[in-house]
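dumping the sequnces here before i forget
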Amino acid sequence: MNRSLVILLGALVLGVALFGSSYFAGQRACRMTRSADDLSWLRDEFHLSDAEMARIQKLHEGYLPKCAEMCAKIAAKKSELETALGPDTHVGVNSTTNVNPVAQQKLAELAALRAQCQAQMLQHFIEVSQTMPPEPGRRYLAEMQRLTLGFHEQTEQSMSKSMGHEHHQP
Amino acid sequence: MNKENINPAPGFAEASDAKLSTLLRATRVAPTLPPRFQEGVWRRIEEAAAPVKVTGGIAWLDALVTLVLRPRLAMATAAVLIVAGALLGVREGSQAARQDAQARYLAVVAPNSLR
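..and the predicted 3d for all of it:
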């Protein structure tokens, strides 16, 4: 093989190795320097002061037990629903192709619990947004609504399109 | 005691050196140069002074290697690669860390069963 070609390929490999190693080192260093705190995203994204963060921390600590309680209720209701569906049913439909009334009842209760939990969550987001300065507060609320409720909208919209019908709202 | 005069008479040394030089010159044998010696010397000097001509289809490759292996250029290229890699890594790492932090916050305040 030509000596020049070998030298050139060696230089190329060395260049790629230099670039790659510095890229990974930079990436790793950046990720390691970030805080692993649950609320670090709020501080960094919305540029909050220590006082604002302290108020949010207090709200956060107050919200977590309520959220855990609701999650436990939802988990219990899901378990009840599975029991109501029984081993012979397939996705809630029994042999007579009807959803059994107990399962229907449990589904409604589960939906109500989820709605209650979502309302509580939204209330928490509103309280947190009010703790922030107006502009970051609005941005935070919009972002949280998009991240938590927007997912359902996207799913529903995609289902409407794929099923070939639209739900027209008044 | 008789003291012998060891100092030569004035002018003796100069006359003796001149004789000696004449004798030495007469006895030295001048080597005969090979044929076309001078021409050969000049040809070598010209070849050494002329830029190296590379023959063949990959002359550009040799030229490129010569360029790449210049210490200043090699060092500058290495420095640019390191800085560019580190900057890009920090940028990507920053975005990934931001997404991780957002996901962590979201997982705490909005469990998956609610989303």
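Residues 165-170 of chain A have pLDDT under 50 and may be disordered.
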